[in-house]
Amino acid sequence: MALYMTQTKVELREVVLRHKPPEMLEISPKGTVPVLQLATGEVIEESLDIMHWALAQGEEGTPFLACDSAAQMALIADMDSVFKAHLDRYKYPGRYLEEPQKDYRALGLAWIEAHVSTRLKETPHLFGTTVSFADIAIFPFLRQFAHTDPDWFYQTVTPQTGRWLKSHIASAAFEAIMAKYPNWQVGEPGIEFPSYHDNKTA
Length: 202
Hints:
- The protein is built from eleven helices and four strands.
- The strands form two sheets. Strands 1-4 form a two-stranded antiparallel sheet.
- The mean pLDDT is 89.
- Helices cover 56% and strands 5% of the residues.
- The chain is mainly α.
- It is globular, with a radius of gyration of 18 Å.
- It folds into two domains: 2-60 and 180-195, Glutaredoxin, CATH 3.40.30; 64-174, Glutathione S-transferase Yfyf (Class Pi), Chain A, domain 2.
């Protein structure tokens, strides 16, 4: 989403993680995605770091760039350390048997209510009237939480929170980045992203 919204051109190579290409493991032995290799050879292995890199490449003054702040980074860090733990345990109850699934769901909901719903009562986005870095970093994880039991989620969260999440899922940007790409084969070039077609969609 950050690459798309800043129109930062990269070559995309879609991989199947159960068949990781040696070329990927050579630049990133931990074998997770996304991983970004720059023209200089530098490798960026974390999603949040790739987002920051994309922001640095974008044109100064765009609304998305203007929304990056310490307050947003603090919220994202709390989501990463607290909410994601509840999300993983809620999504995969067979892996975490310490507490019932409903308890992890309740903990995740409490985080959403405290850190997302309270903000969305005052503004259409987490940090004002413009989609921000924090919105883009956080909404995919709430999407995972919601999709575990959509009926329960949308009946339980505040209407503002439901609308906020649905608006991101239905956005042209999200539709564009969720396009299916062919698996990359060794020797093939990457696919230009964002593509001309993506730009027309926005």
